[in-house]
Specification:
Number of helices: 3
Shape: globular
Structural class: alpha+beta
Distance between the termini: 32 Å
Number of strands: 4
Number of domains: 1
Helix content: 40-55%
């Protein structure tokens, strides 16, 4: 499954240095750093993406955006 993320500029160097094994492509531009990853299951990425906090946006797939949104809602309810 292909996942497309966009990181804020201030996280770009850290993401590049992470050498995360699912990363297939990285492209830096005005809006930030776009990263394309390939995984078998979206759950493989959930904790990694959440670990970047508000510094990352899931662009696709929509199902993963929804999963992140739901997890963020659960976290928000706890605090």
């Amino acid at each position: 499954m292909r996942v497309h993320l966009r990181f804020n500029h201030d996280l770009a160097d850290k993401v590049k240095e992470s050498n995360y094994h699912y990363i297939e492509e990285m492209k830096e531009h005005q809006a930030g750093l776009d990263v394309v990853l390939r995984v078998r299951q979206l759950d493989e990425l959930l904790q990694w993406v959440l670990g970047w906090g508000a510094g990352v946006i899931v662009l696709e797939p929509e199902s993963f955006r929804n999963k992140i949104r739901e997890e963020a809602r659960k976290i928000s309810e706890r605090y």
